[in-house]
Amino acid sequence: MLPKGAAWAVIWAALLCASTVYAATGAELMQSLRSAGLDTAQCYRVRDVTLAKEDLKLYLTEGLLIFSKPVNGERVSAVFSAEVEGGDGEVLLLPPYAGERQSLAKFTKSPNLDEHFRAALLLATDGSLQELFERMSSGAEGRKVPELGPLVAEEFGMPLANVAAGFELRMVQDLMTPAASRQGLRLAALGGTRLGNFEVFYDARAREQIAAGQAAAHAGGSPYDVWTSFPARSFRTSGAAVAAASPFMAQRYRIDAALDASLRLSATVRVAAKVGANPLRVLRFEISRAIHVTAAKVDGAAAELVAREGERGSAVRAGDNEDFLVVAPAELAAGSAHEIAFEEDGAVISPAGNDVYFVGARANWYPRGGQEFAMYDLTFKYPRRLTLVTPGEVSEDRVEGEWHVTRRVTAAPIRMAGFNLGDYEKISGGFPGFRVEVYGNRRLENALQPRLPVAVDTQDPTPISGGGRGAGGGRGGRGGVPQAIAPLAQTLPAAPDPLARLRTVAADVSSAVQFYTGLFGPPAVGSLTVSPIPGVFGQGFPGLVYLSTLAYLDPNERPAGTRGPREQVFFSDLMQAHEVAHQWWGNLVVPAGYQDEWLSEALASYSALMYLEKKKGAKAMEDVLEDYRDALVKKDGEGATTESVGPITLGFRLEAGSEEAFRDITYYKGAWVFHMLRRRLGDERFLKMLAELRRRFDSSPVTTAQLRAVVKQFLPAGVTPAMVDNFFDTWVYSTGVPALKVNYTVKGVAPAVRISGTVEQSGVGDDFSIEAPVEIQFAKGAPQVVWVETTNSGAVFSATVRQAPVKVSIPAGTGVLAARK
Ligand SMILES: [Zn+2]
Fold it and tell me: Could you tell me the distance, in angstroms and rounded to a whole number, from the CA of residue 761 to the centre of ligand 1?
C-alpha cells in the first residue's frame, strides 16, 4: 500500500534530511541554525496541542505557534505564545522518586511540576517539531494565521536565538548524525506564570533523560539549579537506566608535548579510537577552556573542528571544560578503528614563585572523549632545570641542550593522565612489586613565605585608602615599596622548610598503598608518583597524586589558620591517605554518573579513616567521624542542617547555593555511610565486600544500586536484604540525621541480668527508621550490641546478659550517624 498525504511528506523530508546533511560542513550547519529565524508564514492558531515525551507533558492549550525556517529540510525550533484571548499553556512533570520530589520542592515549593506558561521556546533534534509542523501545515490541526507571524517573530525571535545559541553544538552534532542512530534532544524554555523562566529537557543521550531546572539566581555555588533529573519511564521499567553506550572508545593516547621557556604548552595528541555499534561522522570531545585546539585530522586527512564560545548547553553542569566536535571527512563505519590527531596549545601552568608551579588544567589539558580507560605514551620537552612527572614507566629521560625530555608509557589502561613539574627533590620507596616516588619542592612558593603585611600597613606613612590590609605592603602608596619594610624584615620568622616532611610523606604513602593493597587488592597501576601543588587540596589521579604543599611542611610551620587540631590531621594524615585511596576508588572502580560520584569520595575518605585507625588507633578515627557529624548537623539561620540540603546521590546538584553542603554530604556523610555499613556487616564481611567491589568493577563504572547488590552478598545472620534496602533508602537516597536517646532499666543478678529499655528518636520525618546499635558495656570483656529498629514513636529492646552492665548507650563516634542529645 502506498503511503499518502502527510506521510509522503514525512518520508520525503527524511530523505531530504539524510541527503542534504552530508553536504553541509559543521560550520555551515551552525551558520544556518543561527540564521534560520522564525518563518512568519508558518504561524498557526492552535488549541489543545499536546507535546508529550514519556513523563514530560507540554500542553499548548490556546495560543499561537510559529515554526523556524527549516535547517537541512528540518524544522528544529518553534515558539508558542499564549498572548491571545484565553491563551494558556501548561507543563506537567511528576518525578518518580522521593529524593527528586524533595529536590523539586526545594526549588519550586511543590513536589510536582504543574505550571502554566505564557510562552514556550522549543528546540528539538528528535524530529518531533518537524512532525508537528507536518500536522499543522497539512491543515489537520490549527488554523494558519500568517498575518500574525511577523508580530510573534518580532517578540520571540531574539529570545529563541539566545536559547538556541546555548545548544548549537549539540544541534550540529545531532543534525549531522543519521536519523537512524541519532539520539535527539528536546528542550522547552518556558515563561512560567509562577516560577518565571525555566527549562524542561528530554535528552536521549543522557543517563537521566528528563530534567528540569533554572539558571541560578543565587550567588556562589553552581550557576544552574537542576530542580529534578531522572530516567524516563521506559528506561526505568526496562531497567536500562544506565548510560547509553559510548559512540566511540579512545583506546590509546600518544601525546608529544612541549613547554617553552614561559611554560606555555603546545602538543600533538594522537588518539587511537574505535567506533561503537553505530556508524558516526561527528565525534564529541571536551577540553579545558585554557587550551586552544587548532587542527584535527582523522586518519591523516584534515577534519573539521566545530567549537563555540561559552556553550550554555553545558551550563547544566558548568565547569572549566568546553566541548567541541570533530567532523570526519567521511562517515566512520561501526566498529572501525581510526587515529584522530589534534594540535593544541595553551597556558595551563601558573608560577607560584621560586620554581613552584600550579598546573591548572590537570584532568583536561588534552582532548578527552568516548570511553575513559586508555593506554598512554607521553613525551614532554621542557626547560632542563625542571623535573616533570606523569604516570607510567620512564622510557626516556635525557637533556638536549637547554631542554629536558621525558617520556613515560603506561603499562595498563588508565582513566586519565595528569602531569606536574617543578624543581624537585625526590625520595623513592615502596615495597616489592610497587614503586613509590615522592617529589617535593626544593624552594618555598611565595604564598608560604613569612611576611607581616598588617604591620607594614599600620606603619606605612601613606596608608592606602580602604585599608589595603594583607596586600603585602608593596601595593599602592606613593613611591612604590614602603620604607617600613626594611626594619620589619629583621623581625620576620624563619621561612618554613618545604621539604620538612618529605621522608614522612614518602613513608606514609608507601605504607598506605601497602595497607590498601592488603585490603582491596592491587591498585590501578604498579607505581605511584606523589608531587606537590600550591593550595590547600590534593587530587588523586591514576599513578599520580597531587598533594598540597602544606602537607610537606612541619605542622608548627604551617600558616596561621591551618594549625588547629583538625587541620593538622587533615594535612598530616588524611590528605595523602585519601588521595592514595583514589588509586582504587575513582581510578579503578569508577562512578558511573554524577549520582554515584559520592562512592569514590566516600570510599576514599573512609579508606583514609581506616588507615588513620591503623596508624593512630580507633579513637583518632572516631574523633574525625564526630567532627564530620558536627558539620552535618550544623544549622543555618533558618534552622536547617547542612545534611538536609539533599540526598548524597544528588552529587554536584548539592552545590546549589552552598559548596560546603556538597563537600560535607559527599565526603563526610559518605564516610559515615561506609562506617555504618562496617558496623552492621562486621569488619570481616565489610572488608570482603570492598574487595569484591574492587574485583567486580575493575576498570569499569559502578552505580549506587550495584554497590547495594554487592552489600547484600555479605550479610551476617539477622540482616536481611530488605534491611539493606532500608539502609540505602534512608542513608543514601534520602536525608535525615536523628537524635537518639536510650533509657533502660536493669533487673536480676548475674548470671541472668535482664536489661529492658527504649530508644527515643526525634528530629526526623515520620517514616524515618534505622537500625541503631545499642551497646551494653561491662566492667570487663567486650561490649554486647543489640540492634534496635527505631521509629518516631519509640522502640523497645531487651537483652539478658551474664553480668551487670556499666553503661547502655548508642556511642557517639562509633555507632550510627545521630545528633547529640
Ligand atoms: Zn577525593
Answer: 33
pLDDT score for 660: 87
Ligand 1 center to 36 CA (angstroms):
46
- In 289-320, DSSP assigns E strands to 291-298, 301-307
Could you check whether the bond before residue 96 is cis, i.e. omega within 30 degrees of 0? no
Which grid coordinates are listed for 266? Answer: 603546545
**Ligand 1 centre distance from Cα of residue 577 (Å):** 10
Cell of 589: 572502580
Contact 436, 516 (CB under 8 A): no
- Ligand 1 centre to CA of 648 (Å) is 15
From CA 440, how far away is CA 428, in angstroms rounded? Answer: 12
pLDDT tens, 295-319?
A: 999 999 999 999 875 444 444 444 5
Q: Pick from 254, 249, 309, 304: which is nearest to 275 by CA?
A: 249
Residue 202 Ramachandran class (φ > 0 left, ψ -120 to 50 alpha, else beta): beta
pTM of full prediction above 0.70: yes
Contact indicator for 143, 44 with CB cutoff of 8 Å? yes
List, in order, residues 6 or more apart from 280 with CB less than 8 Å away.
Answer: 177, 181, 247, 248, 328, 331, 332
CA of 603 to the centre of ligand 1 (A): 9
Residue matched to cell numbers 545559541: 165
Burial 180-213 (b: 16+ CB within 10 A, else e): eebbbbbbbbbbbeebeebbbbbbbbbbbbbbbb
Distance 663 CA to ligand 1 centre (A): 10
CA 62–ligand 1 middle distance (angstroms): 52
The Å distance, Cα 31 to ligand 1 centre, comes to: 42
Handedness of CA 330, 334, 340, 346 (dihedral sign): positive
Integer Cα distance of 24 and 195 in angstroms: 40
Q: What are phi and psi of 472, to 5 degrees?
A: 90, 0
Give 607 Cα–ligand 1 centroid separation in angstroms: 11
